[in-house]
Amino acid sequence: xxxxxxxxxxxxxxxxxxxxxxxxxxxxxxxxxxxxxxxxxxxxxxxxxxxxxxxxxxxxxxxxxxxxxxxxxxxxxxxxxxxxxxxxxxxxxxxxxxxxxxxxxxxxxxxxxxxxxxxxxxxxxxxxxxxxxxxxxxxxxxxxxxxxxxxxxxxxxxxxxxxxxxxxxxxxxxxxxxxxxxxxxxxxxxxxxxxxxxxxxxxxxxxxxxxxxxxxxxxxxxxxxxxxxxxxxxxxxxxxxxxxxxxxxxxxxxxxxxxxxxxxxxxxxxxxxxxxxxxxxxxxxxxxxxxxxxxxxxxxxxxxxxxxxxxxxxxxxxxxxxxxxxxxxxxxxxxxxxxxxxxxxxxxxxxxxxxxxxxxxxxxxxxxxxxxxxxxxxxxxxxxxxxxxxxxxxxxxxxxxxxxxxxx
Length: 408
Prior knowledge:
- The structure is a single chain.
- By secondary structure, the chain is α/β, with parallel strands linked by helices.
- The chain folds into 2 domains: 7-30 and 299-407, Aspartate Aminotransferase, domain 1 (Alpha-Beta Complex), CATH 3.90.1150; 43-296, Aspartate Aminotransferase, domain 2, CATH 3.40.640.10.
- It is 40% helix and 17% strand.
- The two termini are 41 Å apart.
């Protein structure tokens, strides 16, 4: 069924789309890095900072109580978004990277022992590699890599073989920021649990583009960022099953995460406060609910269908250009197009596209092991969302052809 999304109407909600770059209308195709913000999010940030500033959880005055209520309403909205069993299973962090560092240090401190194994795929973002490497070195554990095929898909037979009695946790990206591959995380979770292992899903690139249900997936942990879902920067989330979070030690100490402090001993607060030390990003948290409400109104199924159609069109048009090599051709794929063009450095391409108002990303995309797997050092990446149009794609393709004529 063809999408009926009114994209032109949606675009009116994003003021940045009205700007120009190098005297050209902005064509923003760097959504995997960060998404633009709808006016409702900007308005909520402005309202809080201009009218409602107060700390949360620490005051009995009206502004503090209002702020606390709005702050916790966002937690409930995130609970509903991912279908968590309890709101206190949603932990506020600074972003996906912070969530993974929290998990690696807290889970790792509690459960990892010398000789244990941590399974990561070959397509992971550095933020889902480095924290695990750091705790593995500290605890004497070992990182084990799950290989992928030439299309950018997990080799499931190899994954099954790598699951081992010593495998304590699998940490896997849901949708690759470079390949666009959407991994079979429900089946990977089932296999991990059958092996007695825990699993974390990095949903940074999937949460804004498809339904993510933690109870259906049965994952132990899930992480994502607000800014990838039309919300503010500096805010992320860690979902964890209640029983696991209760057993894990705090990651940071300070205010809010304590029950009682003496110089002899400190007792920690209950969930979610135990993992939320210090004054949080209050304005960002409150504004993110506006982003969630906005996406909910459009409908995740509508978004997914439209983005699927747009990606198919862009892929077809890009493949027509001579010398193009796609990086990532998985059967299950989200709105990411990574590619190289024979004889052309990705940075040169990105620079010429920028002169034409087209914003894409070039480089290794924080996936250097993946670059090595495909025999490249860098690539160009266009990433799409529901405010992008077929016209955006046409301008993007025309700009590449112009760059190719200029450079080759």
